[in-house]
């Protein structure tokens, strides 16, 4: 990476930044960090872009409301020229104004249409009330105009029949009708008469626009006082009151007029909707293109706000980080941008700078490696030119996951799910993008794919498929017992020796002497001591894998020391670290393999215990009384004593070496007035600046030696104690593998086995019913919960146990100005 300075002509700056945005390999620095965002030069252009984005969001909302398809552009449109921004604003303003006017008119027409619809039903059903009164005069007169007792002012009076009554008609939602009737009765003290009828179809409310079940009502009353009360109650219940003539002839004429107006409004509404559809359909074809163009314009002006305006030179000055290998492409993009702007007399200038500032860390990634790099960056972004663990994590992470998740059946399910996401990634990319859990799964689809494939491999090694074993190649055990032996004993002992003689002298061959071709022999599925055996094997493999990975991490730290020219760190840090690890832990691995290869079935009972052996090695205790404490080889005591003393010597070597080296170097350079401190990096080249040049260019501040002693003491204690704790931490590989296998076996025996153990049609039906709970628990407990647990434990082993040996992660990422990244991070929802 190198720091560059750009001198851009104001007229050509927009086009040059546009070309660099399409290139996507330049990270600009903000040269105005203390200037408020509202006081920068191009703030008005940014506001205009935000206003255009608001109008485009409004258009998109209207298009989605009508459920019209939005078409994606076939190619990536270029950023429009500055003068085209005015045309875009005019187009968006016209569409925005036209669509708002259409919506306003349509809302007014629809409200009028809904009111007329309610009036039509109101007139129809009110006419039905009066027709009933004509056809049944006696009953109606008894109800309406009959002689009634009315309570007025505490006195009871009699109202003569035939007195004229007033009435009010309207429409009220059906769910409010009961409360409306009760309120009328209480407020009017029973001095009103109510008739009601439900409208058979849903009616759209003119105010809210919701489709509701409504009821037509007619309230008969006498006097102005009751009329006012009824009107206030109707207002309180938001009932729509409509006029209704008393004359039947006038009611029929009004109903005919309403029908005519409804027909006319239906035609007008249809034409309005057709016009709206045409406008939105034409907009939907260009909406995505417009959104991309506006985003690019806004990004360009936002970037230009980070530049300095040199009034004297009449140019814009920018600073940016860029890969050295891409400088030719950047020059070409600047030249192309200057030509596109009209070709001024002065072209844009790119000047490389030398700085002591740490450059950003840039990794060339693809969609396969991006997920693994995200796992590493979650711990910390690599320091500039520090070795990147991602290529190694790409293999070791899914492998460690699979060691804890080892089941071929579960691995197949995980692989199928990941393959579906990988093969359908184009269609699934923007689907459910707002769902956070789905986004996490989809972003790590390649990680999940490798985890599934590795789980299939470790499942084959464990010979574990949904907690059952497969006998593909035939077991290496060939044992035949008589019926008498099987009848007397619940279990029989299988000797691991190739030949065995029974008490009667009969020759029996139990073990063929040839191991199972791959993985665990299926006979262990029937063994009572299966867990004891698999625990021993998995525990040793966990120790071997852990120590090997930690040793590999130390050798990667050697790579860092060589690259950064830290020669003293090789002798004062790497050597004591690797020697300490080799004297105790590499030696333990050698003993494990030695025990496996030197003790067969005939000598298994005399094999020493590795755990007791390691404890005795640390305590210098060599007892021969129990067989488990016996030595492995001649001269073991003297050799192990030497290893322990060498490991103890590494502690003061690492604790004192670096501080003493700093003291000596500081005294050696005291005459020159420079104290040894950090290295100076020339970001223009791949090499470090030599000390003399760096001392001439920069002034170094003196480092307090007390800080060096404290830091080195903490680092020493952390490493030597960490070697022990980290080795024990890798035993989680064995523990989680055991837990996963046992949970799988419990689900098999307690659920699925219940159906499979039955015979006949009953067994088939029972298997059908128990399969659903078994498969559900397998997915939710073993795949999701156990999978997440194994994932987190594998992540911890890489962050703490592996990367702590060589990886500092004190850098910051290279975030280029790229239109592609801009559109990917803020996609337009389809």
UniProtKB/TrEMBL annotation:
<keyword id="KW-0813">Transport</keyword>
<dbReference type="GO" id="GO:0051117">
    <property type="term" value="F:ATPase binding"/>
</dbReference>
<dbReference type="GO" id="GO:0046961">
    <property type="term" value="F:proton-transporting ATPase activity, rotational mechanism"/>
</dbReference>
<dbReference type="GO" id="GO:0000220">
    <property type="term" value="C:vacuolar proton-transporting V-type ATPase, V0 domain"/>
</dbReference>
<protein>
    <recommendedName>
        <fullName>V-type proton ATPase subunit a</fullName>
    </recommendedName>
</protein>
<feature type="coiled-coil region">
    <location>
        <begin position="35"/>
        <end position="119"/>
    </location>
</feature>
<feature type="transmembrane region" description="Helical">
    <location>
        <begin position="574"/>
        <end position="594"/>
    </location>
</feature>
<keyword id="KW-1133">Transmembrane helix</keyword>
<dbReference type="GO" id="GO:0005886">
    <property type="term" value="C:plasma membrane"/>
</dbReference>
<feature type="transmembrane region" description="Helical">
    <location>
        <begin position="642"/>
        <end position="661"/>
    </location>
</feature>
<keyword id="KW-0812">Transmembrane</keyword>
<feature type="transmembrane region" description="Helical">
    <location>
        <begin position="392"/>
        <end position="420"/>
    </location>
</feature>
<keyword id="KW-0406">Ion transport</keyword>
<dbReference type="GO" id="GO:0007035">
    <property type="term" value="P:vacuolar acidification"/>
</dbReference>
<comment type="similarity">
    <text>Belongs to the V-ATPase 116 kDa subunit family.</text>
</comment>
<feature type="transmembrane region" description="Helical">
    <location>
        <begin position="440"/>
        <end position="462"/>
    </location>
</feature>
<feature type="transmembrane region" description="Helical">
    <location>
        <begin position="541"/>
        <end position="562"/>
    </location>
</feature>
<keyword id="KW-0175">Coiled coil</keyword>
<comment type="function">
    <text>Essential component of the vacuolar proton pump (V-ATPase), a multimeric enzyme that catalyzes the translocation of protons across the membranes. Required for assembly and activity of the V-ATPase.</text>
</comment>
<keyword id="KW-0472">Membrane</keyword>
<dbReference type="Pfam" id="PF01496">
    <property type="entry name" value="V_ATPase_I"/>
</dbReference>
<dbReference type="InterPro" id="IPR002490">
    <property type="entry name" value="V-ATPase_116kDa_su"/>
</dbReference>
<keyword id="KW-0375">Hydrogen ion transport</keyword>
<dbReference type="InterPro" id="IPR026028">
    <property type="entry name" value="V-type_ATPase_116kDa_su_euka"/>
</dbReference>
């Amino acid at each position: 990476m190198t720091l560059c300075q750009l001198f851009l002509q104001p007229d050509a700056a927009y086009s040059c930044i546009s070309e660099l945005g399409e290139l996507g390999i330049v990270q600009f620095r903000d040269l105005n960090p203390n200037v408020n965002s509202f006081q920068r030069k191009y703030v008005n252009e940014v506001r205009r872009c935000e206003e255009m984005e608001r109008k485009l969001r409004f258009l998109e909302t209207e298009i989605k409301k009508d459920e019209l398809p939005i078409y994606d552009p076939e190619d990536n449109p270029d950023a429009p020229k500055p003068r085209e921004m005015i045309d875009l604003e005019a187009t968006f303003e016209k569409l925005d104004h036209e669509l708002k006017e259409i919506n306003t008119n349509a809302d007014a027409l629809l409200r009028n249409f809904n009111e007329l619809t309610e009036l039509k039903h109101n007139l129809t059903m009110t006419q039905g009330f009066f027709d009933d009164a004509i056809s049944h005069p006696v009953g109606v007169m008894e109800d309406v105009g009959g002689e009634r007792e009315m309570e007025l002012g505490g006195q009871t009076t009699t109202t003569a029949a035939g007195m004229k009554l007033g009435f009010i008609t309207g429409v009220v939602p059906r769910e409010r009708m009961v409360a409306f009737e009760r309120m009328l009765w209480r407020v009017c003290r029973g001095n009103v008469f109510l008739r009601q009828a439900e409208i058979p179809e849903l009616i759209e409310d003119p105010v809210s626009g919701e489709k509701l079940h409504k009821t037509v009502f007619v309230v008969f009353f006498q006097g102005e006082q009751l009329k006012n009360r009824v009107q206030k109650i109707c207002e309180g219940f938001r009932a729509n009151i409509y006029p209704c003539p008393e004359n039947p002839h006038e009611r029929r004429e009004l109903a005919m007029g309403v029908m005519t107006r409804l027909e006319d409004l239906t035609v007008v509404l249809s034409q309005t909707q057709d016009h709206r559809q045409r406008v939105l359909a034409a907009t939907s074809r260009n909406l995505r293109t417009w959104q991309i163009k506006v985003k690019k314009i806004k990004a360009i002006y936002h970037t230009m706000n980070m530049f300095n305006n040199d009034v004297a030179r009449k140019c814009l000055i920018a600073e940016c980080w860029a890969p050295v290998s891409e400088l030719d492409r950047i020059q070409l993009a600047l030249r192309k941008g200057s030509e596109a702007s009209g070709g001024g007399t002065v072209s844009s200038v790119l000047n490389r700078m030398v700085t002591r500032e740490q450059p950003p860390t840039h990794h060339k990634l693809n969609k396969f490696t991006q997920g693994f790099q995200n796992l590493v960056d979650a711990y910390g972004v690599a320091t500039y030119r520090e070795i990147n663990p991602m290529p190694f994590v790409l293999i070791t992470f899914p492998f460690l996951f699979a060691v804890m998740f080892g089941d071929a059946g579960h691995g197949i399910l995980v692989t199928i799910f990941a393959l579906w996401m990988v093969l359908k990634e184009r269609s699934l990319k923007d689907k459910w993008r707002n769902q956070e859990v789905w986004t996490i799964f989809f972003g790590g689809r390649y990680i999940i794919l490798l985890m599934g494939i590795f789980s299939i491999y470790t499942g084959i090694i464990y010979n574990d498929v949904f907690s059952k074993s497969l006998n593909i190649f035939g077991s290496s055990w060939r044992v035949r017992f008589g019926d008498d032996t099987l009848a007397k004993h619940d279990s029989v002992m299988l000797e691991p020796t190739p030949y065995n003689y029974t008490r009667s002298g009969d020759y029996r061959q139990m073990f063929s002497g040839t191991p199972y071709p791959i993985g665990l022999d299926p006979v262990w599925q029937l063994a009572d001591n299966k867990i004891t055996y698999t625990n021993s094997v998995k525990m040793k493999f966990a120790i071997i894998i852990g120590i090997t990975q930690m040793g590999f991490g130390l050798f990667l730290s050697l790579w860092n020391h060589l690259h950064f020219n830290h020669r003293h760190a090789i002798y004062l840090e790497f050597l004591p670290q690797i020697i300490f690890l080799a004297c105790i832990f590499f030696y333990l691995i050698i003993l494990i393999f030695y025990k496996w290869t030197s003790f067969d079935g005939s000598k298994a009972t005399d094999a020493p215990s590795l755990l007791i052996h390691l404890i005795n090695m640390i305590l210098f205790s060599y007892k021969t009384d129990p067989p488990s404490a016996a030595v492995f080889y001649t001269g073991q005591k003297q050799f192990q004593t030497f290893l322990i003393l060498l490991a103890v010597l590494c502690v003061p070597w690492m604790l004192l070496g670096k501080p003493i080296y700093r003291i000596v170097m500081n005294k050696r350079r005291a005459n020159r007035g420079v104290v040894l401190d950090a290295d100076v990096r020339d970001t223009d080249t791949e090499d470090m600046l030599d000390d003399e040049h760096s001392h001439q260019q920069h002034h170094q501040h003196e480092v307090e030696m007390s800080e060096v002693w404290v830091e080195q003491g903490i680092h020493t204690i952390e490493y030597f104690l960490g070697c022990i704790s980290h080795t024990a931490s890798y035993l989680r590989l064995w523990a989680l593998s055991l837990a996963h296998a046992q949970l799988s076996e419990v689900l098999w025996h307690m659920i699925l086995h219940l159906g499979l153990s039955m015979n006949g049609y009953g067994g088939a039906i029972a298997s059908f019913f128990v399969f659903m709970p078994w498969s559900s628990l397998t997915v939710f407990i073993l795949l999701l919960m156990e999978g997440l647990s194994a994932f987190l434990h594998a992540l911890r082993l890489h962050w703490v146990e592996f990367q702590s040996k060589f990886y500092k992660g004190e850098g910051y990422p290279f975030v280029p100005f790229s239109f592609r990244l801009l559109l990917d991070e803020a996609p337009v929802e389809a």
